[in-house]
Amino acid sequence: MELQAVLMAAGGGSRMTDLIYNTPKPLLPVGNKPLMWYPLNLLERVGFEEVIVITTKEVQKMMSSDPKMKLDVKMKLDVVCIQEDGDMGTADALRHIQQKIKSDVLVVSCDLITDVALHEVVDLFRAHNATLAMLMSKAHEFTETVPGQKGKKKTAEQRDFVGVDPSGKRLLFMANEADLEDGLSIRKSIIKKHPRMHIKTGLVDAHLYCLKKEVVDFLAENKSISSIRGELVPYLVRKQFSKTANRQKMKDESEDQTQKKNDDSTNQELLIASRDESLLQLAQERSCWNDHHGDMSEAYHGGKLRCYVHILDQGLCYRVNTLAAYIEANRLAPKLFEEPAVHPSAVISEKCQMGSDSMIGALCQIADKTSIKRSTIGNSTTVKEKVKVTNSIVMHGVTIEEG
Amino acid sequence: MADSGGTDEHDKKDDVERSKSEGKELTKEEKQRLRKEKKQQKKHKEKKDDKASQESGKENKSASSAAAAPQLPTQTVKAPSAVPAPAPVFVPASSEAPASADKPTKTKAELKAERRARQEAERASKQGKKGDPGQQAASGKLKAPPSELQPVVKRLPEHIQVDNPEVLKKLAKKLERQQTPVHGATIKIPLRSDYGYKVSLFSHLHQYSRKAPLTQQLSIPSTVIHPAVVRLGLQYSQGIVAGSNARSVALLHAFKQVIRDYTTPPNEELSRDLVNKLKPYISFLNQCRPLSASMGNAIKFVKKEISNIPTQCKEEEAKSKILNCIEWYINDKIILAAKAIAASAIEKISDEDVILVYGCSSLVNHILFEAFEKRRKFRVIVVDSRPRLEGREALRRLVQRGISCTYVLISAVSYILPEVSKVFLGAHALLANGYVMSRVGTSQIALVAKAFNVPVLVCCETYKFCERVQTDSFVSNELDDPDDLIVTRKGKTHLENWQEVPSLGLLNLVYDVTPPDFVDLVITELGMIPCTSVPVVLRVKNVDQ
Fold first, then answer.
1. What part of A 104-123 touches B (C-beta under 8 Å)?
2. CB contact under 8 A, B241 and A4
3. Backbone phi and psi for residue A116, each to the nearest 5 degrees, phi listed first
4. Which residue windows are transmembrane per the record (chain B) (predicted)?
5. What domains, with CATH codes, occur in chain A?
6. Do B240 and A128 touch (CB under 8 A)?
7. Same structural domain, B528 and B460
8. Does B190 touch chain A if contact means CB atoms closer than 8 Å?
9. Which residues in chain A touch residue B386, judged by CB atoms under 8 angstroms apart?
10. Out of A106, A119, A288, whose CB is closest to B242?
11. Could you tell me if B234 and B300 lie in one domain?
């Protein structure tokens, strides 16, 4: 088996507390489908047959009762429950399921809505024998105004600095502004090997990672890492250029005993142990390919740890973790799939005005003289007469009275 | 049509006999009449030939004239045997060919258009009728001798005829049908579609784009194809594993992984089932990048080893046997062969030599490293060419060892050749008629070296020897991504929209063939042989196996 998919659906939704009030984040309706459905649909379309879903007990209960999940998702979902209270980060969750992981892992977050061609990310992972391949996208300005927010709040503290090489594929540097105190410092070893680096700040991390199996084993050893995004990824990106990563014979390291103890755990992942390492080495030696030009080193600078990123220029990629993103997603999600805006089982009276941007869910009843513009109406809602619904998202099972 | 041709010949025969009786020379009017009849005959024959070799939809004049040119000589070949008439008739026949070619192209185009219209009509009617044996019998001696000739006229193998839509359909079906009934699953290898406008001379070859990898059409956790093979296919198509030795080694490595993960299904024999398992993988790799001659030989070897496994052998034992065979093959044919070749080649390198190398050949680099270790004093001139610019990698490796190098582009080869004392070239394959198939540009270098009387030595392991025969680079070649030829300087790309210009085609060839006259010596692990001894080596190899 080549890749195992893991869906992280235990997140709290800390940045959209108003919405999380009633329904947990993975089951928030977006375009009348639960949020979780979108990444699952992406995996299913690409050809995955099994997904390990890490979630809370509450979500599991609701999932089993949700008709959409049962009918549309044909894959086998292996649900693993973790405690709700937990300060369990994503990496902790991976550690939790380490026994189930038998091959390389594709980690997806439940709040990702995208139409990316997944093979682009996985091809980087396969072709370069990378340790990490991730997806990022150019951030779009949100056009919708968020109720309750005056003006545009620039979340300056949340900026990510991502450094890539001129081809735009190799990940050289990753840091969050919150971690940088006074300035951005880049090690000389990185600059020596990659004299040209493009640093981008306007990128959104899609939280879709392909990780080698050795990384999961490494996580099991190293209990200090708790979040993939916050700690593991920057660690791996840094480790690409560390001295131990580039030393050829690591077993002969008798000099730095103490360092060796600390790096013992990293040795595991860095010694990408394959029984035919010598053959691969031979093939690479005989091949007349190099990933860079201009200096005297071999392909990949002899480094065994490589991180790649695929940056999406065009196309949909949203992470629904803030209110603004939720609203935006509701507007655009229906365009992902060619489903009719109006569900066939909805009963709509004739004198109703409906804009093209709206979506009406199943079993709705919409009475006369109503006007619905740019809104999403959930399933089984009743809208009585003389109601104007503009720019809203109405959840399931709601009744809107007259006037 | 056949009958009219018969009557033409009849008349001609009478004319000839009359002319013979009147004197050796035919009168002017008779010559003209003969010419007209010959042309008519040719028209009919060309129609038949056109039906046989279906031309592509895009009809350029160059295409039609290029197609017509090889056809006319074949017609003159057919005509003599078809018409068992005395020799003098064929002098005007052969003079017909250039005469008709000299005619103004306008009328030729008109004629061709008419011919094609007639051909379409006849093809439609022919599809109604079933088979032509009746017609053939009726036409008698006109058709019978050409049918005898048919086995001699060699047709292109089907996998090359890309411009023939029927062949493409057959290929797609074949890829679909390559299934192994494992739990009823069918292995469907997707067909990679061609990209961009292909220059008409090479329309029978595939041209793929690097931006449309075959993995687009596969499911991501590839269950159908072993992940090692998918990885290898990706590396081939992106050029990460390039060079004939590297490709073979990587292929055998992937096969080892496949064999390791293989389990014999119940009621099947390992020797037969494993070979069937490998077939779709090989077609997948072929779609990613056409197989090289060295890879083909390696695959033949592996298949032979697998089918030679005795049936009573246990699975574990059989698998370890095959794995050991593969290890032996790599060790013997690649690593040890390189050592042997280096040992003999070093004798040819003397002190104060100036050696010219082209591109990045792993074997030639190995020889130069060994020679440097043995403290020979020489310097190297590395010749490079666009778009691959592989010479940069060769330059890097040589300079890293401490060898003093000069770097030029292929356009400067005649400028630099007076300094050169020897030329060392690597080969992708050695063909059975002594031709050397190598990176495009090699034959140019060999030609210029011959002009300057500089010895050309080709280094090639015997596992790259191939039974194919080729005298030109058109028949069988590889077309690389045409977008590689586009250059962006200071943000400006002039060829950005080359697809929209209807008269523009980009051609990115990968291989070319060098005739044996330009090659002085071939260094193999069996010794230093002249180029013409390649078929002997092949025969010896076949006897061994």
1. 106, 117-119, 122-123
2. no
3. -65, 150
4. none
5. 3-147+158-243+303-325 (3.90.550.10), 341-400 (2.160.10.10)
6. yes
7. yes
8. no
9. none
10. A288
11. yes
* Beta-carbon separation of B362 and A286 below 8 A: yes
Q: Give the pLDDT confidence of B259-291 residue by residue, as tens digits.
A: 999 988 888 888 888 999 999 999 999 999 999
Q: Which chain A residue lies closest to B365 (C-alpha atoms)?
A: A286
Scan residues 217-246 of B and list those with Cβ closer than 8 Å to A.
218-223, 227, 230-231, 234-235, 238-243, 245-246
CATH of the domain at B445: 3.40.50.10470
Distance in angstroms (rounded) separating the CA atoms of residues B424 and A321? 63
**Domain endpoint, select from B300, B330, B348:** B348
Question: Which residues in chain A show pLDDT less than 70?
Answer: 1, 12-13, 18-20, 67-71, 84-87, 141-157, 244-276, 336-346, 356-357, 403
The answer on B460 and B358 residing in a single domain is yes
Q: In the prediction, which pLDDT does B338 show?
A: 95
Residues B357, B336 share a domain: no
Yes or no: say if B442 and B514 are a contact pair by the CB < 8 Å rule. Answer: yes
Sheet of A347-348, strand order? A347-348, A365-366, A382-383, A399-400
pLDDT tens per residue across span B463-485: 999 988 999 999 999 999 999 99
Query: Smallest Cα–Cα separation from A54: which of A17, A95, A115?
Result: A95
Instruction: Render pLDDT for B211-248 as a digit per residue (tens, 0 to 9).
Output: 888 888 888 877 788 999 999 999 999 999 999 999 99
Backbone angles phi, psi at B420, to 5 degrees: -85, 140
Judgement on whether residues B374 and B318 belong to the same structural domain of the protein = no
ipTM attached to this prediction: 0.84
Name the residue range of residue B321's domain: 221-348
How many residue contacts between A and B have a Cβ separation below 8 Å?
Answer: 106
- CA dist A181 and A2 (Å) reads 41
CA dihedral B334, B335, B336, B341 (to 10 degrees): 70
Q: What local confidence, expressed as pLDDT, does residue B161 receive?
A: 66
**Would residue B289 count as lying in a domain?**
yes
Length of chain B equals: 545
- Structure tokens that stand for B432 in this block: 């059975």
Question: Chain B contacts of A3, Cβ < 8 Å?
Answer: 220-221
Residue B364 has pLDDT above 90, yes or no: yes
Question: Domain boundary at B348, B365, B400, which?
Answer: B348
Strand partners, A107: A6, A209
3-state secondary structure B307-320: HCCCCCCCHHHHHH
Let me know whether B233 and B292 are in one domain. yes
Residue B53: pLDDT band (50, 70, 90) is low
Q: Which residues of A touch B400 (CB under 8 A)?
A: 296
Taking a contact as any Cβ pair under 8 Å apart, which residues of chain A between 261 and 290 contact chain B?
Answer: 276, 279-280, 282-290
Asked if the C-beta of B362 comes within 8 angstroms of chain A's C-beta atoms, the answer is: yes
Per-residue pLDDT averaged across B421-441, rounded? Answer: 94
Higher pLDDT, B113 or B484: B484
**What is the number of structural domains in chain B?**
2
pLDDT of residue A148: 60
**Contact list, A122 vs chain B (CB under 8 Å):** 215, 220
A286 → closest Cβ in B234, B239, B245 = B245
